[in-house]
Amino acid sequence: MSIIDWYVLAITILSIVAYGLWKSRGARNIEGYLLADHELPWYQVGLSVMATQASAITFIALPGKAYSDGMGFVQLYFGLPIATVILCKTFIPIFRSLNVYTAYEYLENRFDSKTRSLTAFLFLLQRGLSTGITIYAPAIILSAILGIHITYTTLFTGSIVISYIVYGGTKAVAYTQMFQMVIIFSGLLIAAFMVVHLLPEQIGFIDSLQIAGKMNKLGAITTDFDLKDEYNIWSGIIGGFFLQLSYLGTDQSQVGRYLTGKSVKESRLGLVMNSLIKIPMQFAILLIGILVFVFYQFNTPPLFFNQTEVNRIEQSRYGKDYQQLESEHVQTYEYKKQHAAALITAIDHDNKQAIAEARQQLQADDSLAKVIKSKAKDLMLKNNKQADDNDTNYVFLSFVTKYLPVGLVGLLIAIILLASMGSTASGINSLASTSVIDFYKRFINTTGNEQTYLNASRWATAAWGIFCVVVALYAGKVGNLIEAVNELGSLFYGNILGIFLVAFYLKRIKGSAVFYAAIITEIIIIAIWMEDIMAYLWLNALGCALLVIIALAIQIITDRKTGTI
Fold first, then answer.
1. Do residues 65 and 288 lie in contact, with contact meaning Cβ atoms separated by under 8 Å?
2. How far apart are CA 238 and CA 343, in angstroms?
3. If both were cysteines, with which of 10, 82, 463, 559 could 565 make a disulfide (CB 3.0 to 4.6 Å apart)?
């Protein structure tokens, strides 16, 4: 990056962090530190919920996902509006009426101590791992820009987030997230405009969509029912509904956001705001990835987008072999540019035969490019078995740093880093609040004062921050980051959601039945995932259903043995 880009990056991040710290100064008790004294308005609640979800993974991995696979990923969010209705009707009023710090406090009132502890533990496990992956995402950026090993950039980005969340708590998170989202929306518009602007002069936005459509990249909805297909309308509406309901209703990183609202109404409005904006926002980010794909029909992309791995292979004994593959790659894209131009001409003249021929030629070019890329990956793994051979996470970053003008590069890099800071801070804050409220106050120090618990919250924040940084150091092999986070959550979310649904609606079922059902369900879900029996989205619905059925069966057996039936 240029000096100007570095100035833009530094000023943007430092000013927002400083503002968040200033607004969050003076936290004197645990309620202020963990729940921001219940004083945030609805729009700030909504922006905070969105910012917690919109991590750096969203802006790094999502365009790369669209670049590789098209728009189908957007179906993941189709269940969100339905989930929002249930959350506003049931979850928010219950949590607010009980005046809880965490979602899991309710479970002890409804069931027993062991069920609360188990559910909180499952949350800590999945959220700790997921937050570690979100720290890894911005480390990729700095590694690519600075050309240094990702271990050092991981330690650097993790330490920045830990430092301000330890001091400011939830208020620091909420106030920084509000401005982060404003800058993020602005940056998305700029990025979309610049991609279209950089296309050949005769190709506009509509032309780029037509090209993408002919290349089968705009299919946002798949109606075929297939349990192994990760993204179709059925997995999106059903599996996505259970995923979103569990994420927003039982994950403390989200529950903690809307518990900061001034009232039930403010919390509800914040969630509705998130529901209305989330799907269009994700669609827009995917569309940017599609536009980058079209851009690279007329410009030669790198053979491999992860420049760190490229440098490593070029300096190895396989360097000449890799250079030969690069030459073949460049030649393939010279043909591809000609065929892309022919497709545009055919579309302009509405020549269906020419369109079909150009499309067929482009698809053949794509197939050849994939073969060459596969050979390059084999070389990298031959040179280093630990090489990161999945470079979809680097597609958008590579485009930004190579093609955008001075100043905009710094702004977009700042946006990605800010998104990471917001989501990571929320994750660490929720881990700390669950650790202190659900374990420390109950089992370690039951008679402490406000200052004791405030200090414990800060120490827990620091400890979880360090844990997440350690996880991030090992996150390079998980593939596409946004899929990895959702897949990891799906191993636990259905089970946790089932526990809460039983608590809300099936009053007959007691704590022991739910406790043992949760253990059995988790074992079954992990076994199904390891055997790759179905796409991960379905695990959310299956986990929830299994928990309810098994808990009900255990309770019926127990009642019969005790003679209560």
1. no
2. 38
3. 559
